[in-house]
Amino acid sequence: MRALGLVAFVVVVLGSVVVATTRVERLAVPVAKAREQPAVSASALQRGARVILVTLDGARWQDVLDRPGALAGPARAMPKLLEVVAKNGVALPATTSSSVPLSLPGYQALAAGRRTACADNDCGRITHETLAEAVARRLSLPPQQVAVFASWARLAFAASARDGAVTVDVPPRGPPTPGGPPWEDARWDADTASRAVAHLRAHRPRLLHLALLDMDEYAHLGDAPRTVEALRRADDVIATLLEEVRRWGAEERRLTTLIVTADHGRGPGRLWTSHSAYGASRDVFVLAAGDLVRGGSTADVTQADVRPTVERLLGLCPTPGEGRPIDAIAGSLPCG
């Protein structure tokens, strides 16, 4: 959560690694084989589609995707997530859209679908209508149907531009508290995840954003074992969310999509404990799984593409901005 250089850039998909010598030499790589998307109308998506968005603060693609250099060594950090993606999803390399690879600028870029004026973790509240707010307004949803649960208090400055339109559940700002994590403005991911899972069970929201933090804070401390443990706990949380979805009816399951990404990456090699000063910190990932996921595209992906992709999955034509729907995820889904 705390705080660019020429480094090798690795393009990653499940089952394939291609190394480019610079960030600008981007090589075409194969992605998951294209699948035929279900026949569904925009109105059906608007009535019943759901998206679960999970962000892993500062998670490295090497660790999430089990690639060379992963902190977990021969043991995967997120095996359950990778299994789901391999069966019914896609893993794509991506780059940040924020002005600097820091948390609040990254979260605002995800929410706005564009770079905002935010350039550090102390900037003010987002002024653009956010993804969550746009979904609630355009689908005429009550606040509990569009929810953001975060372990970092300042993520509230990216979740919504105004109060009341959506559910935003974050810890209070301030110093560490007894029983909480040893870093400020935060609560343990386990507490945040418990709240999010309970909300999913009670309300089945159309959009749920769960923003986890522990892995970034442990990485800043240089604690590799606890960083891996935090990712494994996140893996378990995602599995729990998907298990809840499996209890739903067939049509609800068919129209629900999981997306996992990060606000920023980390420094290269042994500089992995930090991020803002390194070009490698702009390298992130977007993973998606679900029956609506198309696969079969090698187009470049940026952080700003997440918002229009979520909108398209919900049957909404994307809000104009820097980003475009990710073809490998939303494909040719209709919108209106």
The helix-and-strand class reads alpha/beta
The profile of the biggest β sheet is:
7 strands, mixed
Mean pLDDT: 90
Strand residues, percent? 15-25%
Radius of gyration, CA atoms, in whole angstroms: 18 Å
Strand order of the largest sheet: 4-9-8-3-7-5-6
Task: Give a short summary of the structure.
The chain is α/β, with parallel strands linked by helices and 336 residues long. 31% of the residues lie in helices and 15% in strands.
Describe the overall structure:
The protein starts with 8 loop residues before the first strand and ends in a 6-residue tail after the last helix. With 336 residues, it is of the alpha/beta class. The protein is built from twelve helices and nine strands.
Secondary-structure map with pairings?
Elements: E1 9-13, E2 16-20, H1 42-48, E3 50-56, H2 61-64, H3 79-88, E4 89-95, H4 103-112, H5 131-138, E5 146-150, H6 156-159, E6 167-169, H7 189-203, E7 207-212, H8 214-220, H9 224-246, H10 250-254, E8 256-261, E9 283-289, H11 306-313, H12 327-330
Helix pairs in contact: 7-9, 8-9
